[in-house]
Specification:
- By secondary structure, the chain is an alpha+beta fold.
- The chain folds into 2 domains: about 160 residues, Cytidine Deaminase, domain 2; about 70 residues, Ubiquitin-like (UB roll) (Roll).
- The protein is about 30% helix and about 30% strand.
- The strands form 2 sheets. Strands 2-1-12-11-10-9-7-8 form an 8-stranded mixed beta sheet, sandwiched between helices. A 4-stranded mixed beta sheet has the order 4-3-6-5.
- The radius of gyration is 21 Å and the shape is globular.
């Protein structure tokens, strides 16, 4: 860890995590320091037009921009770029063939993993005081896997689900090629049915970036669970917005990254880091 390269140091940060494992009917709890990957919002503007905002790892910015423009057909070679300027997290690009951009942009379909929501506001908080047991998380995960039929067949989709915390009912489950799409679908399902999101747990198969936390915050969902890892920035945002964030939920174990007070076995445990 101490010999990591300068570039590697920019890609992740160490933060405090609570590890929970249910073994032989007992809930085992321990605090550890764990590395979490960083995320960086990169805004790309072409000829003054907002092209797209990407969440990427904070390195190789120029390489990413050129590779993205080339792979999506915006440019054919490096010579097509007249000028490129980086200002903080914004990239301003001017092409030699301006007319081409309008035709090309109308035909671009990007993967949903590139989605970036609007600027996050730390003033928003989820105020729900619901509590669940550690075993609730394990059982919800079990039901989640049982429903993941398309993933078992193809291995090519993400999934999301809503569980009612009080009744432990699986309210809705969906699979989609994009993690954002899946989350949006289950939240939309609840919204159309006037579901009380303050009593709901959101479970997703995808990695957790800040944009996923924003979705939960805006809906008012207090607990978010993923079988994958969160980013460092997502953890910080979850703590500030009072979301209980659980990651690496697999088998009979999971990590709690923020606001553990909603887990009954952890309600007296606090993090030493903000």
């Amino acid at each position: 860890m101490e010999n990591r390269s300068t570039e590697a140091k920019t890609l992740y940060m160490i933060n405090e995590v609570i590890k929970v494992e249910i073994k032989n009917g007992k809930t085992l709890i321990r605090k550890v320091q764990e590395p979490l990957v960083r995320e960086y919002a990169l805004n790309i503007n072409i000829h003054g037009l907002k092209y797209r905002t990407y969440l990427i790892s904070p390195n190789m910015f120029e390489e990413f921009v050129y590779g993205n423009l080339l792979s999506l057909g915006i440019i054919d070679s490096i010579r097509d770029v007249d000028k490129i300027k980086f200002v903080n997290n914004e990239v301003k690009i001017y092409l030699k063939y301006k007319a081409k951009i309008f035709k090309t942009l109308s035909n671009v379909f990007g993967p949903s993993c590139e989605e970036k929501t609007s600027v996050h506001s730390y003033s928003e908080k989820v105020l729900s005081n619901v509590k669940i047991s550690a075993n609730y998380v394990i059982e919800a995960l079990k039901k989640f896997y049982e429903k993941s039929e398309v993933f078992r067949i193809t291995g090519g989709v993400h999934a999301a689900a809503l569980f009612n915390i009080n009744s432990f009912n699986l309210l809705v489950f969906t699979e989609d090629i994009g993690r954002h799409n899946a989350i949006d679908k289950v939240i939309g399902w609840g919204f159309l049915r006037n579901i009380d999101f303050s009593k709901v747990l959101l479970l997703t198969s995808g990695r957790i970036f800040t944009d996923s936390i924003v979705k939960a915050v805006r809906a008012g969902i207090p607990i978010m669970v993923s079988k994958s890892a969160p980013t460092f920035d997502a953890v910080v945002y979850a703590r500030k917005t009072n979301i209980t964030l659980i990651g690496f939920a697999r088998g009979k174990r999971f990590n709690v990254y923020s606001n553990p007070q909603r887990i009954r076995e952890l309600e007296n445990i606090v993090f030493n880091t903000p």
